[in-house]
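Thread: Newbie trying to understand structure tokens

Hi all, I'm a second-year student working on a class project, and my supervisor (Dr. K.) asked me to get a predicted structure for one chain before our next meeting. I've only ever worked with sequences, so writing a 3D structure as a token string is new to me. If someone could post the tokens and maybe explain what I'm looking at, I'd be very grateful. Here's the chain:
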Amino acid sequence: MKKTPNKTIGLLLLMLLALFLLSIDRSMLLSKRIFAESIEQKVDRGRDINILLMGIDARPGETTGRSDTMILLSIHPSIQKAVLIWIPRDTRLDTPIKGSYKINIVNFYKGPEKACEVVGKLLAVDVNYYMTVNFNGFEKIIDQLGGLDMDVDINLYSARSNVYLHKGRQHLNGKEALKYARFRTLPNADIGRTQRQQRLMTALIERISQPSVMLKIPVLLPELSKNVATNLSVKDLIYLSQMGYLLDTNNTYTQTLPGTGYIDRYSGASYWIVDRQVAASVIRSVLNGHRYEVQENP
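---
Reply by user tm_fold:
Sure, no problem. This is what the structure looks like when written as tokens:
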């Protein structure tokens, strides 16, 4: 496992909360939790807060699409710490959905609420909230930001997308950045893609945090409003934005869900096989200081 720097995690949380607040209009339309218990009330009762973050492919205004990126943000107010669990998209389900055993298909066929349910069962926690970000819109957002500077760790040649990248420090436009983050190749397949998505997120946050770029944020609002959706209420969004300890770099951690790569010899499909007992305890283990190394080779 390659650990994301704590500084980056804090900035990631800050950016996510900013996206929440920027999408308030959409959250009011999407939320079905008008009379539900608020996050503040849950915190007062000592409850943890779990939010599923998904990067998806969908048309503007839709929340259902294959989830290329799945991250559980687990907030623990009683100890003022948070954990980000990155869930590989090839994680194998116990029960297929429409013939597929991969976890990334859940949101596409069943929607974000069902995706929350499946992830909650996998990690043995209650997941009641979600945020989806449409990757197609992020290509435009990256271009509007003037591109990203990234350390590219692979040689990538895609005639279909007209993207040709070489290893090393490069300045990428939106199409190149997303192609890099979503590219998968053996031997590390899905885990390599997860790590590249983490690098993309790091580069995006570093770019947004630059003072000159922050002035461009108002220009991004129309694209963000079309491509960000959440079921969090306005009250919950405001309360989350006031959790200052989420931005304390000593109190936030990241972990890729431990597992083993596997290729089905009959279908050729690749999977990330998760030990259910490990998955059920991974959040608590990370909070207690344990870190898991992931096995990259299938």
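A couple of things are worth pointing out once you decode it. Residues 6-133+210-287 form a domain with the Nucleotidyltransferase; domain 5 fold (CATH 3.30.420.590). Residues 1-9, 25-29 have pLDDT under 50 and may be disordered. Feel free to ask follow-ups in this thread.
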